[in-house]
């Protein structure tokens, strides 16, 4: 990727406040976390006409289609829920 195309900031929102969200350089903010913080991120982004991509409050969502192997789906769900003690986001 070209320099500056993708930047990942892992922090507590209290450390950076709204300065990061309000800064003109990031054009899109992607946030994964709580509904409470996500609502704040969306509000600040909207005030600055900035796109926000939010994944909020999920806890191992799983879609199983009619033609799926249900036993396999259950095994995959259990594995994905507990791999790395739930500290990963699988899409």
Explain what this protein looks like in three dimensions.
- The structure is a single chain.
- By secondary structure, this protein is α+β, with helices and mostly antiparallel strands.
- The chain folds into two domains: 1-58, no CATH class; 59-91, no CATH class.
- The protein is 37% helix and 13% strand.
- The chain is built from four helices and two strands; from the N terminus they run ααβαβα.
- Strands 1-2 form a two-stranded parallel sheet.
- Helix 3 (35-47) links the parallel strand 1 and strand 2 (51-56).
- The protein starts with 12 loop residues before the first helix and ends in a 9-residue tail after the last helix.
List the helices and strands and how they pair.
Elements: H1 13-16, H2 19-22, E1 28-33, H3 35-47, E2 51-56, H4 70-82
Parallel strand pairs: 1-2
